[in-house]
Amino acid sequence: MKYYFNTTLNENFDEVIDKVTEKLKKEGFGILTEINVNETLKKKLDVDFKRYQILGACNPPFAHQALEAEDKIGAMLPCNVIVQQKNENTVEIAAVNPLASMQAVKNEKLTEIANEISEKLKRVINQLN
């Protein structure tokens, strides 16, 4: 099982960020955190890196259910979605596969929740094309 779902688009990086955010919103996710990796690496290490952004997506009802089912699961939240510039014309979007990351946790209730979240994130990725 792959630990992510992904797709590539031939679009502008900033427009892709907006598009991903919109698709996540339609599936009930909000963005809790945004990490601009290339800016951070430049500031901290003086390294040039491709455009790479991590969006920390959260679906509050499912997050609540997951926390009720497994109180330490917060260590694996939120669901990260990355947007990275692959080349001048290509942007890749990848979302974590919650089913893959939850395999280590032996909790049937959590597996059911992870399955539903996986389906939502798959839809986001598939709707980007």
UniProtKB/TrEMBL annotation:
Gene3D superfamilies cross-referenced by the UniProt entry: TT1751-like domain
Domain of life: Bacteria
InterPro entries reported for this sequence: DUF302 (IPR005180), TT1751-like_sf (IPR035923), UCP021774 (IPR016796)
DUF302 domain: residues covered: 35-98
Cross-referenced SUPFAM superfamilies: TT1751-like
Pfam families the UniProt entry points to: DUF302
PANTHER family: SLR5037 PROTEIN (PTHR38342:SF1)
Protein name per Swiss-Prot or TrEMBL: DUF302 domain-containing protein
Species for this entry: Leeuwenhoekiella nanhaiensis
Lineage: Bacteria, Pseudomonadati, Bacteroidota, Flavobacteriia, Flavobacteriales
